[in-house]
Amino acid sequence: MKKTNGEKEKCDTKSKHPSRPWVDEDLKDGTDHPLEEEEGDEEWQGLEENVAHVPFTGERYSEAEMIKRSRTFYELLNKRRSVRFLSDEPVPREVIDNVIRTAGTSPSGAHTEPWTFVVVQDPDLKHKIREIVEEEEEINYKKRMGDRWVNDLKRLRTNWIKEYLDTAPYLILIFKQVYGRLPNGKKKTHYYNEISVSIACGILLAALQNAGLYTVTSTPLNCGPQLRVLLQRPANEKLLLLLPVGYPKKDATVPALTRKPLEDIMVVM
Q: Which H or E element spans position 225?
C-alpha cells in the first residue's frame, strides 16, 4: 500500500534526529558502527593467546598517610586551570615523554590501548594546524554552533583566534584508534575506544599539572579529518582532543570561576 502524504511526513519527522552541531562526525566512537563499504570484506580476528597472571602486591599506607596524600593530590589538581595564554618558553622534551608515558598507563577495554599521542613541536607544522583550526572555528562560531552556544562562551571571552597553537612549545593531539591491526594484518576490535582514550586524557591532564605545565582542552569541531591527513595518521585513527602545552605567559589571565562543592557532585548511598 502506498503511504499518504500525511503518513510520509510523520515518518520523515520521526526519522529526523535533533541537531547537535557540537558533535563532530569525526569524533564519534566507531566501536559499534558498521564498517565503511570499502572495508566491509576485511577479516576480523579476536585475541586468542592466554595471558599469564602473576602475583600482585599494591602499596599500602596508614590511614593518616592516605588522608594526607589524597588531600595533597586534590589541592594540586584544584589549581588546574584552562590557560589560553601560553608562553613560547621551551619545555624539556623528557617531561613530555614522561607525561605521555603516564597517560599510557590508563586502563582500556580488553587492554587494547587504543590511543596515539602525536606531539608537534615543529613551528611550521604548528602554524598549519592553527590555520586549519581557525578557518573551521570561524565557521563554527558564525554558523554551526548556534546563538545559545556562542552566547554561553562570551562570558569566557573565547573566540576562533587560537594564538596558543603557535606559541605553545608543544601541541599534543590525541587520536583514538577505532580498530587495531594484528601482526597478520587482520583487524582487531578496540572495545570502548572513546571511553578508554578519554580516561587516558584525564590522566594526561593530571600528569601535566603535576609537572607544572598548563593547557586548554580543545576539541576542534570539523577539523579532525584535515588534521589527520596533515599528520599522516591512518584512517582508523580519529582525533579526540588537542592540547597546547607550556607555561603560562607572565600576563596570563583566566576566568574567575568556582567549582561545585563535594555535596553537589557526590551521592553516598
A: helix 224-230
As a dihedral over the C-alpha atoms of residue 193, residue 198, residue 199, residue 201, rounded to 10 degrees, the angle is 130
d(CA 57, CA 74): 25
- DSSP helix/strand/coil, 183: coil
Q: Which residues have CB under 8 Å from 125's CB, separation 6+?
A: 230
Cell of 51: 595471558
pLDDT in tens, 106-151: 999 999 999 999 999 999 999 999 999 988 777 666 666 667 766 6
Residues of the chain with pLDDT under 50: 8-24, 26-40
Which residues are 189's β-sheet partners? 179
Mode of pairing for the β-strands spanning 237-245 and 187-189? unpaired
CA distance 172 to 213: 13
* Strand ranges (E), the chain: 115-120, 170-177, 179-181, 187-189, 237-245
Other beta carbons within 10 Å of 137: 22
